[in-house]
Amino acid sequence: MFEQLGLIGCGLMGGSFALALKRAGLVKRVVGYSKSPSTTQKALHMGVIDIEAPSALMAVSGSDFVLLAVPVSATEAVLKSIRHIVTADMLLMDVGSTKSDVVAAARRGLRDEVGSFIPAHPIAGREVSGIGHANADLYNNCQVILTPFERSLTKQMRQAQAVWEALGCKVQLMSPQAHDAAYAAVSHFPHLMACALVQNVATQAKGKEYMTLAGSGFRDTTRIAAGDPQMWRDIFLANKTEVLAQSRAFVQHLQQMEQLIENDKSVELEVLLRLAQQSRKQWRMKTNGSTESTDV
Amino acid sequence: MFEQLGLIGCGLMGGSFALALKRAGLVKRVVGYSKSPSTTQKALHMGVIDIEAPSALMAVSGSDFVLLAVPVSATEAVLKSIRHIVTADMLLMDVGSTKSDVVAAARRGLRDEVGSFIPAHPIAGREVSGIGHANADLYNNCQVILTPFERSLTKQMRQAQAVWEALGCKVQLMSPQAHDAAYAAVSHFPHLMACALVQNVATQAKGKEYMTLAGSGFRDTTRIAAGDPQMWRDIFLANKTEVLAQSRAFVQHLQQMEQLIENDKSVELEVLLRLAQQSRKQWRMKTNGSTESTDV
Predict the structure, then answer these.
(1) Interface contact flag, B273 A232, Cβ < 8 Å
(2) Which terminus of chain B, N or C, has fewer Cβ atoms within 10 Å?
(3) Contact assessment for residue A92 and residue A66, using Cβ atoms and an 8 Å cutoff
(4) Model confidence over B58-68: pLDDT tens digits?
(5) Would the CB atoms of A202 and B290 count as touching at under 8 Å?
(6) pLDDT digits (tens, 9 = 90+) for B138-149
(7) What CA dihedral angle connects B240, B73, B30 and B32, to 10 degrees?
């Protein structure tokens, strides 16, 4: 049980976390800060936060738990601005989709207090963003990756694990590097791919007409392309090496299939399609952080 | 109202059509043929068909409506085998995903009787196949593309349009070539892309581990990769030129994004991601042929 959550960033992720924490009875009050005052006010009106803070620093003041829910590129600057009131008793956590860069930013931003910071990535999210979509159920039954590093304090690690588990999540520990390699493959590159597909169709001479003819295959392969451009730009740049490696490996697989089609290699093509079918059929999502994946 | 539907191919598409036609009271009896006798028997037990036929020819005999629901590569051979009992009074229709090749196969297979044949592509389907999944609701509210050609008879065109509309579908007319270009962009290539993504992840050294970490983005971008490998092989080969053109254009868009990431072109990258976001957000599926797109 926490006395006060200092919420820095009142968007979909942060707002939903505050709502879930409150509903679970795990926090007495939430003090929130957002770059945009209108967002903070909306969070207050929605009951996501109890008190508006005029700065990140004021949101941290008096908090025993601080959640950073800002674009990953803002991590270092925010942590620097609060460093001098961070203590070894506080739990600091983020919810960013990349982890190596966040750990590096935390080291630079927090220096001696970096042990209080536990990097976290809840596998939840939606193609919409903003406080207006905040929802206490966003993290229900979702998978959460924690990527502690050698400076991480044991007490904070236990607290971080306990709080996600109390919200009904399944916690898994990984190194920041292993996290980034895995999520480049199954999340970051698929997002880039979905955006490239939409661009490819939409920019064709008859693209608009083609899109009116599209069905559920197009709907699902491109759903995530509606995600926040700024957030995803940050993710691609922060996890550049792994994302580019996945993209290039993917293109090789695609071009192998192109070759088989071009040369009428019917048998070999079917073999590859069957392998893909089997892999996909055997796969089941471990947990589900989003219940609204097909709302269009 | 038809006296008898001759159903050639008792799989998901054909079986669902027969069930829908019966439920709508548009046919008195269904005579079905499948290559595999156990499929035909199952269709009989499920009430999809009323009479088993030992051959395609026997399914056509006495029918005023014939539906071909076989892999597109089998179209010509099947039509040849029934040609001598096809008359100018019958309606023949298919449900294949490609149309130029089907029209060419129909011309060769039916010769003088090709005017009875109306090429149709209902934008429905699921990542499962087989008579066991046949469902009278599969075509509910779905879009159907008819691609008549200069030999098509007016009476059959009207009948084909009327029967789909009676099933609650929205009918649109296109040329076979325009159909194939459009569906290469919004259906065939996205399927190839989804298969290449699954293959890329599954064949990596840590691919199996990565897949256990995947969330709803991976789930949706890859859903269609679980589709029937043989059916999709046929589609890729039948619509080769358009599919390859889409694949190559897509790779150019992807590589443009790779370049921006590699060179830290943050502003330009965000512009492209925002264009993709806007195109995808503005898009709405016209009609919905599949209600079970997220069953994993």
Answers:
(1) yes
(2) N
(3) yes
(4) 999 999 999 99
(5) no
(6) 999 999 999 999
(7) -150
Residues 65-124 of A with CB under 8 A from B: 123-124
Rounded to the nearest angstrom, the minimum Cα separation between A167 and chain B is 18
B79, B73, B164: which is closest to B114 by C-alpha? B79
Q: CA nearest A146: which of A174, A126, A166? A: A174
Which pLDDT score is estimated for B101? Answer: 96
Q: How far is CA A9 from the centre of its chain?
A: 14
Instruction: Identify the closest residue of chain A to B249 by CA–CA distance.
Output: A200
- Check CB contact of B199 with chain A, cutoff 8 Å: yes
Percent of chain B with pLDDT over 70: 96
**Which of helix, strand or coil describes residue B88?**
coil
**CB of B289 closer than 8 Å to CB of A216:** yes
From the list A123, A227, A237, which residue is nearest B264 (CB)? Answer: A237
Q: How far apart are CA A257 and CA B195, in angstroms?
A: 9
Q: Tell me if A118 sits within 8 A of A146, measured CB to CB.
A: yes
% of chain B beyond a pLDDT of 90: 92
Tens-place pLDDT, residues B254-267: 999 999 999 999 99
Q: Which residues are within 8 A (CB) of B169 and not within 5 positions of it... i.e. 6 or more apart?
A: B122, B139, B141, B142, B143, B144, B287
How many residue pairs bridge chain A and chain B with CB atoms within 8 Å of each other? 309
> Which residues make Cβ contacts (< 8 Å) with residue B120, sequence separation at least 6?
B93, B94, B95, B144, B145, B146, B147, B160, B164
Distance in angstroms (rounded) separating the CA atoms of residues B98 and B188 = 9
B219 or A286: which carries more pLDDT confidence?
Answer: B219
Q: Are A86 and A116 in contact (CB under 8 A)?
A: yes
- pTM here? 0.89
Q: Is the pLDDT score of A1 beyond 80?
A: yes
Q: Does A259 touch chain B (CB under 8 A)?
A: no
The residue of chain A with its CA nearest to that of B221 is A221
| Other C-beta atoms lying within 10 Å of the C-beta of residue A70 | 25
The length of chain B in residues reads 296
User: Distance, in angstroms, between B56 CA and closest chain A CA?
Assistant: 26
A1 in contact with B at a CB cutoff of 8 Å? no
Put simply, whether B200 touches A (Cβ < 8 Å) is yes
Interface probe for B, chosen from A216, A223, A241, A294 (most Cβ of B below 10 Å), is A216
